[in-house]
């Protein structure tokens, strides 16, 4: 059965593309929907009719390439909507959301696939150990927000990949293709006046990031238990997706803090601004340390005096090894492990309850620009630490703490319990 689909779907895709294009041209001259439908069906079947050597679809396939599963569904739905009786024209409102997503993803995917960037997102599709969880996050988020068609496209594409019904071994080829990207761009441009209806709210961001944390932690638990080599050498590899996500999250948080500093610099006291700037620099430091300040990215050499003192022979400070009472201790474990855990414990179990119950404590933390956690932030921090430490059996589990912890930290800073202190229109 799978072999049948593998052989015939590419030809059916080429025929569908050609029939859709022909119908668009015919629609300019023939208004009757029944006639348009007849022409569409006739062109589609004509492309599949066997000729002495090859069918017309065989030659068209050279021009169109292989249509993705997403392409089949969207072009099929567009055709059905166009030929629906009683309509004055094709309605693409339901297709606009997935079309916009396709355009945005393609703007990132195809430049990386052409070698224009440091990393290649297309390569993730061959062994979707990272792309799989991402697809699930998008699928779950689409269902949560009522984007049923987008969820169906993701689920169908992933299921088709699992069954291997196309010739490609790359998951991306089941989700995207150049033809559907061009068509999606056409839909977005044509319906650009409706783009104002798509607004990313705080609720959207919080839900998607919470789903991201849960999905990747569960996947990490599974890999660490049943495929530890994949977890260690693919999932949490140096300069991999997990590490770069941590960097991007911290860098984004830095930008938010920096923006707050600029907006509030004339309406907040020096102490408030100083702490805000320190938090900005802390995020920059965390992002820089995570990628060793771009050492591997730019091919920088580690100075000789750091090679012997750094556990990984890199430029980063957090991997430095110091001698305390005759024993070598990693700063990573001392400061960023024990120290950070103790600070988090005090922040959540002491400072937060006092902030909510005592007016003087509340005034103090507001005065020093401390973003206090909401209830879900507190639960998130505790669940992340408990999950990683108790359920992920690997020496590399710290990467997951950094990944999930940085996302929760970003949510804590950007959407705090006390957002009013960052509003320039309100006084402390």
Structural features, described:
The N and C termini lie far apart (68 Å). The radius of gyration is 27 Å and the shape is elongated. β1 and β2 form a beta hairpin. The protein is built from 19 helices and two strands. The mean pLDDT is 87. With 428 residues, the protein is mainly α. It has two domains: 196 residues, no CATH class; 155 residues, no CATH class. The chain has a two-stranded antiparallel sheet with strand order 1-2. α6 runs antiparallel to α10. 68% of the residues lie in helices and 2% in strands.
- Strand-residue proportion: under 5%
Alpha-beta classification = mainly alpha
Low-confidence stretches: none
Shape: elongated
The overall average pLDDT, rounded, is 87
Quaternary structure: single chain
Rg over C-alpha atoms, rounded to the nearest angstrom = 27 Å
Give the N-terminus to C-terminus distance in angstroms. Answer: 68 Å
Number of separate strands: 2
